[in-house]
Amino acid sequence: MNPVPQSTLKVQLSVFMFLQYFIWGAWYVSMGTYLFTTLKFEGAQIGLAYGAFAIGAMISPFLVGLIADRYFASEKILAVLGILGGGVMCLLPQCTTFASFYPMLILYCALYVPTLALGNSLSLHHLANAKVDFPRVKMLSAVGWIAGLFGLQYLAGAESPVQFYLAGGASVVFGLFALALPHTPPKKTGADVSLAEILGLDALALLKKPSFAIFIGCMFLICIPLYFYFVNLGVYLTQLKWEGMLVKTSLAQVSDVIFFLLLPVFLSKFGYKITIFIGILCWVLRYFALGFSVEAGAAQTALIFTAILLHGACYDFLFIAGQLYVDEQANERIRGAAQGFIAFILWGVGAFVGTYLAGKVLARHTLTPAPATGLAHDWQSIWLTPAWGALGVLVIFLVFFRNPRTPEKQNPAG
């Protein structure tokens, strides 16, 4: 079977990334508004609901290791996950209590989150020059997220279950399209595969490298404050009575496109340490901008837009650069496990702790009775909490992380 030409491959992977993030963008931002205004969930329950994504991420490495890496080609498991996930997503509108909504959302996330690690692993496997081409392909994920937000805004679905039907339908399309991706057979076949390899635990050998261990520790720590943004922004802007909220927040993905293009340049010129440092620094600046926006008067809108437009550097210089760093440190055999491991940290344990604390902080700073401003929470305290946390992580990363001297593909244990 002849390999797919790189030009065709890049188009295929770009469409794949577009669809994958269209699904995510169609419901993730607006879910907090839907749960708060329509289903009347409490702050802690909203935090737990966003934590369902984290639970899915913690299940993901085991699903990938036990099934995808062992028995099935990546494109086939992506198809199954996409179609099943679409079906589950379309059932969510029937769940109007927390007791029914929460487990159904966990089930959906357990089906969706593995597609992130699998998609990255498949892309990095087939792209000839991953360090340059992967950010360009991944750029279409930002476009897909924007399209999901615009589609939901057009349907006026931010406070309705329409968002779940939109995401569910897109998920089925995503699953069908995955079958057109290049054939990527499982690597961990044969009788000599250990249980540790099946579960992806072989990627833990990378932690023997001091800088890699520091990197993973900082990724976990930064995930705790960063999820305050995703959990609380929609509620904050709703209380500020922002019209066209979804379209305005999609400017974050516009900056995403720009920084996807800049990422290879920064990595080439400055290396991983400075690039990731800038990513963490932008999270610090984002939260201080939101914190000071609360009582900023005429400058409020400008500060909120500043926080939104920092998203490209926040996400690309941290998450995408981090995924490339992990890929560079892993050899061919553990590449999929390594991507699953970083997904476990970014979207799993870190996200679970972060979303839980974001919901608790939101609930703790409820103002009773609500003041005349219409703001039902002490938003300055809410936003400054993750600002100081992100600043602490920034200092730790700056002091302890070291740039890799050379790619060490042959010996992941270092």
What is the compact description of this entry?
By secondary structure, the protein is mostly helical. The chain has 15 helices and no strands.
Description:
By secondary structure, the chain is mainly alpha-helical. The chain has a single domain (6-183, 194-400), classed as Growth Hormone, Chain: A, CATH 1.20.1250.20. Helix content is 75%, strand content 0%. The protein has helices at residues 6-25, 28-38, 43-71, 74-91, 98-126, 130-154, 162-178, 195-198, 210-239, 245-249, 251-293, 300-309, 311-329, 335-364, 379-400. The two termini are 35 Å apart.
Key words describing this protein structure:
single chain; Growth Hormone, Chain: A; 15 helices
Measured as a percent range, the helix fraction is over 70%
Describe the biggest sheet? none
Rg, nearest Å: 20 Å
Q: Work out the number of β strands.
A: 0
CATH superfamily: MFS general substrate transporter like domains
- How would the global form be characterised? globular
Number of helices: 15
Any low-confidence stretches, pLDDT <50, length ≥5? 407-414
In terms of topology, how is this protein built?
Layout: H1 6-25, H2 28-38, H3 43-71, H4 74-91, H5 98-126, H6 130-154, H7 162-178, H8 195-198, H9 210-239, H10 245-249, H11 251-293, H12 300-309, H13 311-329, H14 335-364, H15 379-400
